[in-house]
Amino acid sequence: MHSLNPAIAARFMALTSGHLTREYPHKLDHVLDGPEDAQTPSALHPIFHGSFDWHSCVHGWWQVLRLARLFPDLEQAAGVRELAARMLTADNFAVETAYLARPSARGFERPYGWAWALALQGEMRRHDAPWAGHADAFAAAFAARFHAFLPLQTYPIRVGTHYNSAFAMTLARDWAAEHDCVLVTLIDTRARDWFGQDRSCQAWEPGGDEFLSSALCEALVMSRVLGAEFARWFDAFLPDAAQGLPATLFSPASVSDRSDGKIAHLDGLNLSRAWCWRAIARALGEGHPVCMRARETADLHLAAALPHVAGDYMGEHWLASFALLALEAGG
After folding, report:
1. What pLDDT does 1 receive?
2. What is the tens place of the pLDDT at every residue in 136-157?
3. Residue-level pLDDT at 299
4. 46: phi > 0 → left, psi -120 to 50 → alpha, else beta; which?
5. 277 in Cβ contact with 294 (< 8 Å)
6. Do the Cβ atoms of 213 and 205 come closer than 8 Å?
7. Of 24, 74, 173, 322, which has fewest CB within 10 angstroms of its CB?
8. Closest by CA position to 297, among listed 274, 276, 325
9. Is the pTM of this model over 0.85?
10. With 80 as the cut, is the pLDDT of residue 277 above it?
11. Structural domain boundaries in the chain
């Protein structure tokens, strides 16, 4: 079974630290309301201007801070702490937070970036460092967006990309379990409304540019929401899972061109599926007939994707974060 260890931690921290401050190439999520808004990524985002795009930079920071905390004696961890002291300042977070007040930023990074912003602040709070609380107002702004938006969103978004509702709800709920009990209740209510009666999922995936499994992300959030009720729901949602059906959920995706940013998403699909399957296995419990198959399937997906975390910047700027999710889920 693939597991997190110091060698992997050192490799991931070195890899990701190398692009957290790499400003170009960069894909902005930015609406220009006037000519004065045509600014560079670093002018708009003094912290999150690296890693090709804003959300990848956010979860890249989450990843390196988490690894530095889990493996504090590694040389790379010291470098992460030095970079954090330089970048994660109160002034820089004030600029990042102020950006959200722009009238055209209402949908900025919704919901994927919102959820990762919460995860980052939650990780920062676990550190004994001067910057540990600098993201508090930043996270509060994103939590407020979840509170405002979830009641307005009539239908879930089930695609396997950044707009997926279940993925964002999983990360947001994990954060809210420690920081915002009202948001937990809101997410649980929404998840039950949207997914509670889903049965016999066809799992028509993967799509050509998807990095999330719509089916497994839904099952993952329901495992958080339902607790002891989850196994019954899962057995109705994927009734043939013990037989390895639908087969598409049990076979790693093939990646034909890792220099194509969209096609490279499929390496992320393999990693995120591994994360989901491992967490689902734990939620179902040892006695469930799907448990062992889920763990074996997770290992197949990890084996397919881990060799490709580095190599081309189209995957390199983000894949290590999803590899960490999957590796940690293994226990």
Report:
1. 74
2. 999 999 999 999 999 999 999 9
3. 98
4. alpha
5. yes
6. yes
7. 24
8. 274
9. yes
10. yes
11. 197-331
